[in-house]
Amino acid sequence: MKRWGMVIDLERCIGCQTCTMTCKVQNSLPPGTFWARVLKQEIGTYPNARMVSLPVLCMHCEEPPCVPVCPTGASQKRDDGIVWIDYDKCIGCRYCMQSCPYEARSFHAELTSYFEEETPYEQVTRQVLGNGPQKGTVSKCNFCMDRVDAGMNPACVDSCLGKARIFGDLNDPESEVSQLLQNREHEVLHGEAGTKPSVSYLTEISPTMLNVLLAKFSDDDEGLPADKPPGERAVSAGPERSPDPVNQGAD
Amino acid sequence: MNNGKRAMHGGDAEIFEDVTIPSVCEICLCQCPIVVRRVNGVVVKIEGNPASEKYKGIVCGKGVTAPMFQDDKNRVNFPMVRTNPKGHNVDPGWKRISWEEAMTIASEKLGKVLEEDIRKLVVYAGVTPFFSINHVMNGFAGATGCTTVLSGASVHCGNSEHFFGFSRQSMSDNADWQYTNFVMQAGINMGAGSSYRTRISEIRAADARTRGMKLVMVDPIGVLGTEIADEWVPIVPGTDGALFMSMAHVLVHELNIVDREYLAEDTNLPYLIGEDSLYVRGEDGKPMMYDLADDSPKPYDASFGSLALEGTYVVGGQTCHTAYELLKQSLLEWTPERAQSATDIPAATIRHLTTELANAAQVGATTVIDGQTLRYRPAALIGGRGIVAHDNAYGTWLALMTVGELLGLPGAVGGIVYAGAVSEGYKPGYYSWDVEPGPDGIQSGYFYQGPFKSPVKGYPIDEPARPNSIGLRDLNPMPFVSPLAFRAIVNPKQFGLDFDTKGTFFLAVGGNWVYNHNSPDIHLEAMKKCFVVGIHNYLNDSVNAAADLVLPGTTHLERLSIPQSYAHQYQQMGYPGTWECYLRQPVVSPGYERRDESEILIDLLTKVGRRPAFNQVMNTVMALKEPLMIKPTEVDISWADMVDRYCRSHWGEDKGLDWFKKNGFISWPSKLQEWYSSQFYKAGRFIVYYEPVVRNGRQTAELARKYDIDYPVTEWSALPYWEPCAQCRESNETYDMAAVYYKHALAAQSYGEANALIKDVLAKDIVMDVALINPKAAKKRGIKDGDEIVIEAPDGMSVRHTAKLSQIIHPRVVGVCNGLANESKFTPAAKGKKFNWLLKNDWEYIDKIVQSLEADRAVRVTKAEARS
Amino acid sequence: MFAIPKYHESFLDTPVRQTQWAEGRGLLFIIAIFLGGVGSAAYILGVALDLKLVMIIGWILAVIGKGGFHLLFLGRPTRVWRALAKVRTSWLSRGLWGLGAFTVIGLAYIGLEVTESPNAGLRQSLAWLSVLTAGFVMLYEAFLLKKAVGIPVWNTWWMMALIPTFSLLAGSALVILIQLVLIELGRIAPDQQLAARSTIIVLESVTEILLIVGALVMSGYLARGLRRSGAVRISVQLLLQGSLRAWFWIGIVLFVIAVPALVGIAGGFGHLPTGLIATIAVLAVIGEFAVKYTLLASGSYPKMYPSRPLHRLPTQS
Predict the structure, then answer these.
(1) Which of A4, A35, A46, A224 has the highest number of chain B CBs within 10 A, making it the mutation to test binding with B?
(2) B371: exposed, middle or buried (C-beta count within 10 Å: 0-12, 13-18, 19+)?
(3) Which of B11, B238, B358, C247 has the fewest CB atoms nearer than 10 Å to its CB?
(4) Neighbours of B275 (CB within 10 A)
(5) Tens digits of per-residue pLDDT, B424-448?
(6) Cβ–Cβ below 8 Å for B4 and A84
(7) Distance between CA B249 and CA A162 in Å, rounded?
(8) Which residues have CB under 8 Å from B800's CB, separation 6+?
(9) Which other chains touch chain A, taking contact as 3+ CB pairs less than 8 Å apart?
(10) Would you say the ipTM is above 0.90?
(11) What predicted TM-score, i.e. pTM, was given to this entire model?
(12) Strand partners, B792
């Protein structure tokens, strides 16, 4: 049995909010609703400061705290690990929202539109394609399960500008997600809550780690193929690299 | 189980159409290939075209939101005529009229100008339309003989970088991400989702980071780039030139790491320069170099036993130096300590950055790709508009380039790339760019095909002439677009124009032409002298303030056009990689009374009797070949027919419009010699010592004196330099901060406030729609997070904004997110606060050589309540 | 003033306040659990003190009031029956079952009492059963909150003490109020008035004990919060220093604890005029609303970024 999961490589995320916008369009989300977001925060103090981005979405937990608290069974987990909401069963009590530490859920007292009347885009996506939430119920990311069932990736994965999101079967040790989790340092959010998220974050690579990785890949010539530069491979551009003696100080 | 869908609504839920159609995005300059999903005649989804190797199936957060804009309630749907006077923040009193009435009004006004004085015709294109309907706009200008084509593009961003880019057959620079190990970028956030020309860099930069590339970011504001940068170097705005000068100093005078072989063989730095700062020419008029082997000067194309890169010589009784010698001398005083006082970057940091760059460059190294031995310099120093949005832009960009040149980075594997310099074409003879030898042994290149010569030719640079057009590109041909054109409409005599500009026909296709530059008052005054026709797809502040007639245009999802080859100039294909040429096709019909801009322009030309001329011009603009060339008599040929002929002309009979509509784009593999063209095409040397600029400066000064033109010309330099910009000069104890604007990809180019989905994000993102200020600076002024602040320039102009305290901004800087430039209460989509009111259209704030604008300002920042 | 953003208000990664059970229509949820707490407590006291009217009022508040406001709060009230489904896992489902049980059993017992049924055994059994179900209605909210792992400040056993203590406190105050009103309206026969007065004295003692317990429990809850970091501490700070501080200091500390405590120190309700006692009782009931409101409205989600850095630290030489 598959267990769908996502790996987000923070080394590659550029914080552009393309996932945020793609998700909105894919799922015809009403104003103010975001199933996927990129959270930002500053770390450090001037001048040693930087902005860091943390893309968040429903973590599709293996032990989803939102599911047992749902009084109707609307929130549920599929056999393949996707946690989703059957809108027709949801009564809008919002207990699941208080139980999700990932702020992944939104409630829709009214199904609002961006203008006074629904635009044709909203009409067709909502009424013909059946996208988007239902009035009076709670909604959240469902890993684009229509797309996944059709053999595609979630929309945020395909649209990611830095290709920071990788989607696949966590139960398959050969899948890219499993491989990345085996080979890269990673972390989940709110691991202390015991939720066992299916979304993991590859931490940014420290120079030390990079050397470890490169040593590993240089053992077998298969590793990091496309990225390998020609010529003598330069590992980390830094002052410690000795300059090529050719043509130096010729005068 | 309902499979995660909401309950369907009974009978209207039938899907009678569900198709995907390839096309091209147009919301910024990246022009990404997309696939559009259309259901029941409505666009429901946009994704990057996964078939594109070059773009790798991506389109940004702005591009994907286009379905929401399609039926935005604020779009222009009918022709409308103004009934109230022009002015800032006024009700235009739009009155709906028929297309026939509208075209009659427009053609009468245009016809009058064509008859009386063609110089009174100005065509203006917003940034993105400029790239979208470029062919017909060129055709329009060509058929009418229009001498002034203006654009929102370049004035703010690129007058300097384009000028230098053109001399490398490119719009600008980028890093060779596929192979680089170290990138230092200043004033731009390549790879970080910033405004433009970055889309295909992002994934490549991400690959490089995963590989271990180090990225250094030099910028006063770090909120939009430090996500990916390994090191952020905050700098005082407008002082980047000082940084580059000192980096060059460290290379030449401290580290002694210089790619002498490259400089000697591939640049004009060995040319001998006389005391007049011009080339020392031989009897045949050719610039000379010095041969140490036989101790004599020789023409550049002679054979040399031992070429002198540096030194001082006496030639024909005149003392002269090599250009490199002059450069070296000019760098002598530029110690990092000197730069530190201007830039606020510690001298030690400058030294360590330069050392890292120099070491990473591996001067002297080569690599072998596909059996070819190539210069390998896996390090890049690249710049963007942030460093040249100042009145010292020319010297600053030249200093930036010089650092790269000293290390031999341009055109090297892993170094600095100049995009799409050479294309050998799909098939020989088709669709190609080229380099060719220019005069004086300097490489020249095509940049731009059309009825005009290139707007700014790479080399030789056009010579100055007496002003005869509102565009003002006669007196100084170096700027891509002159920011003074609007001022010239207001006061033509000031610029030596001998005709009255009253009654100028100003045709704008998109853009926010009153407000997106500086001094909106001057721009509005100019518009009051003109009859303004705007073709727009939504009402913005400029249309509301100043258009006499507005015609409903289309979005990129409703339009047929050939995305300009600019995409190749900006969006490099890399090696290995692919060339790709796309078609933008209407995915849905425009609806209401909206019309394709190209068709509107063609109709207008037909009405004024210029259709035959247009047909002829288009043969050149579209480079049509027989038997597909358009005859002057074929006045009924549609725009779609013309595009079909274009496709067949370039790609063969079987690849007409229908083929492109089905397939979206055509691609073919790039070649090694195309990507690293300068290492293969020896069409001449790169210009590094800009000798023609000295000549042009003298001529411009002479003309200005002769015709009493307001053009303050001092001696222009062929060498890099830095001097304080207007903001630095204006800064004092009271006006002690620099107000700078920055652009978030989502918020840039007005689309952020025009699209309801993006507006939704703007309200939540922490760096959009705010004024950033360092907590130290804020504390000193009693400002807290969320306070309303007043940012006031010395001349009293001010803007108000909401303060957002940030550690990632230089304490002397207040940073305003400025994609949002509409604020009139009569503009439904308005959201923003106009930073541009702070900026001035005045020589004091404009680079005299390349006419880049000072886009920052010395200001004082106070809490709003603290003031009366 | 100490403040944090609301849920989904910005893309800044900070702790955020929950709004769904506190703001706008979310107030209906708080009213519901307030009425449920006061009503069920009053019912229990009514049974214990054999006060029929109190039982009836308690039942009405807990069943009609709580149930009604819960229904009004739901996004899809017509589907409420679906909430019976997951009694095995969801405290909300269990609460609904409990309320249903109390509705039936409480009503049956009230019926027996009103009709003065001679079946003492049945009355006794139903009395116990109804008190148990009422107790469940009062207490299940504590489990409900404890299991909401998104809001860590709620995930504590202190809830088990906080919720019933203050519910009983308010219930007790409500009973005093009812009794006073009945006396004032002359609805209590003169020969019964002394008994009614003594009931008030008993309840006064109960109240005094509960307020001491309540003060201790609340202090424990707050101290736990202040000892923790992150969202738990922030939630408590919102109570003490943030936008909820007026509710806390006036509604809880002053109305529920300080005023009754002062009265207790001064020698008890017996010495006070009826109007003042009634006022104190009303304040205590309002105070219970403040307890429920502040407990819920201060609920905050933790920030998302983990304690272990995922990103390189910024460097600049």
Answers:
(1) A46
(2) exposed
(3) B11
(4) 10
(5) 777 655 555 667 778 899 987 655 4
(6) yes
(7) 36
(8) B788, B789, B790, B791, B833, B864
(9) B, C
(10) yes
(11) 0.92
(12) B798, B860
